[in-house]
Specification:
eight-stranded mixed sheet, Alpha-Beta Plaits, Rossmann fold, alpha/beta, 297 residues
Length: 297
């Protein structure tokens, strides 16, 4: 079924009022989009900053009366913002697609380093003799397509992981932890605040025919405090700074640390948080994102 949509160019100060109007007129969903490429990578906790020029899109069913909605929006605007011009508006038909199928068709096997491939679980592996990680991320983060995940996978491919104990903090789809198991690690403790991520990690563990006991999942408050040979965390700079005492305690002396989810300008902040406990390496960079690795004193 096709959909109808209304797009409004609004300012951040009145975006919420227009969102309420769209919802009141029968809108099925509202999205906010940046019109001028002003990225907001990591907002402060409790805030929802918007761009200086925001496109507000309301999605309606195909049988919705857009003419009536346009009239409602104009009348409501005149009451809320008397004397101010109505924002630029565009109405259009949104082509109907099987979005899940389209995404699946465009997700292809990818190689990281020399040994490791990440392969969609519904496609044939290109190299049966490689270390093939079969993945279906579900609703969790981590497919290998994002630069931060790629940076981590490339580093893991170059490690000697036989019989190592690993902590994957912020495990998402489980891609990093499962990669270490396929590369020889003995056990992974996978931690995430999202129960869907924990479920996805366990499903991907089964998908790779790995023992159920080789990866165990936990919410942060229930995670064990056993020290690991390798601690991996692909999150964001803010949480990584807050988690510095936790991640440091989870890494044994001589163990390795892998941090990503970071922008280039956040390097100093992370070095300040971890530099006293780890000998940190030079950063690796991909498309403006960086990875920081190190070994615990």
């Amino acid at each position: 079924m096709p959909w109808l949509q209304i797009k409004l160019d609004v300012l951040p100060d009145n975006a919420e009022q227009y969102e309420d109007l769209l919802l009141a007129s029968g809108c099925a969903a509202v999205t906010f989009q940046d019109r001028e490429d002003q990225p907001i990578f990591e907002p402060d906790l409790g805030t929802t900053p918007l761009w200086s020029n925001t496109v507000l899109t309301g999605l309606f069913s195909a049988d919705h009366d857009l003419k009536a909605t346009e009239q409602f929006l104009h009348e409501s605007h005149n009451q809320l913002f008397p004397g101010k011009p109505f924002p630029p508006m565009k109405t259009e038909i949104l082509e109907d697609k099987d979005w899940e199928r389209e995404w699946m068709d465009n997700y292809h096997p990818m190689q990281f380093g020399t040994r490791l491939w990440v392969c969609p679980s519904w496609k044939e592996v290109p190299n049966p003799d490689a270390v093939n990680l079969m993945l279906d991320p579900g609703l969790a983060f981590g497919t290998g397509t994002h630069p931060t995940t790629a940076l981590c996978l490339e580093f893991l491919d170059g490690l000697e992981l036989d019989d190592k104990q690993v902590v994957d903090y912020g495990c998402g789809s489980g891609i990093l932890g499962i990669a270490t198991l396929l590369l020889g690690a003995k056990h992974v403790t996978a931690v995430d605040i999202d129960p869907q991520a924990l479920d996805a990690s366990l499903e991907n563990l089964k998908r790779n025919n790995l023992p159920a006991t080789s990866l165990q999942v936990y919410l942060p408050e229930k995670a064990p405090q056993d020290r690991a040979d390798l601690v991996v965390a692909n999150i964001l700079a803010g949480p990584l700074v807050e988690l510095a005492p936790t991640l440091t305690a989870l890494c044994r002396s001589g163990g390795q640390l892998v941090l990503s989810g970071l922008l280039q300008e956040q390097e100093e902040e992370i070095r300040n948080a971890y530099g006293s406990d780890f000998a940190l390496d030079a950063v690796a960079e991909k498309e403006g994102w960086i990875r920081i690795t190190g070994r615990k004193h």
